[in-house]
Amino acid sequence: MHFDNLPILLILAISLIGNNFTVSIAALVLLLIKLVGLDSWLPVIESKGINVGVAILTAAVLVPLVSGRVDASSIANVFKSPAGVIAVLTGLLVAWIAGQGVPFMKSSPEAVTALMIGTLVGVCFFRGLAVGPLIAGGVVALVLGLLKL
């Protein structure tokens, strides 16, 4: 009996128990790709998936601009309140931290498993979002850099 699919089946089960259908769909799609013999697509998904996912996420965030719900005066008003300025600075910081995570994850594949476990628990049981690995990878890279490890 082969246990190759056990990790993704466990992730699928945990995501279903945790009512996180985003992770469930991702796990199920990857499992189906493997089971139907389209394994050659896995490296493509791995190498291009983050960029495609970020592009889709960014498009979703930009919809209010395109739909007219947010106009130029609303954007200008962002800089007139403390909450708006803090939000801009926080967005800048988190985007930079996430950017540090991508090269770290590529150079430290052993850390990816730990990041995924943490992200999976956070997504399934703490109502987090699956963008966690990039930010977590960036935080890990920064901490390791500060500690010179």
Features:
single chain; mainly alpha; 7 helices; 149 residues
Structural class: mainly alpha
| Unreliable runs | none
For the termini, the CA-CA separation is 40 Å
Can you summarize the main beta sheet? none
- How confident is the prediction overall: mean pLDDT? 85
Helix content: over 70%
Give the SSE string: HHHHHHH
Tell me the number of helical segments per DSSP (H or I, 4 or more residues long).
Answer: 7
Q: What's the shape?
A: globular
Radius of gyration, in angstroms, nearest whole number: 18 Å
Provide the β-strand percentage band. Answer: under 5%
How many strands appear in the DSSP assignment?
Answer: 0
Q: Care to describe what's here?
A:
The model has no long low-confidence stretch (mean pLDDT 85). The protein is built from 7 helices and no strands. Helix 5 crosses helix 6 (109-125). It starts with 5 loop residues before the first helix and ends with a helix. The longest helix has 26 residues, at 42-67. Helix content is 80%, strand content 0%. By secondary structure, it is an all-alpha fold. The protein has helices at 6-17, 21-35, 42-67, 72-78, 82-107, 109-125, 132-147. It is globular.
Write the layout of secondary structure elements.
Blueprint: H1 6-17, H2 21-35, H3 42-67, H4 72-78, H5 82-107, H6 109-125, H7 132-147
Helix pairs in contact: 1-2, 5-6, 5-7, 6-7
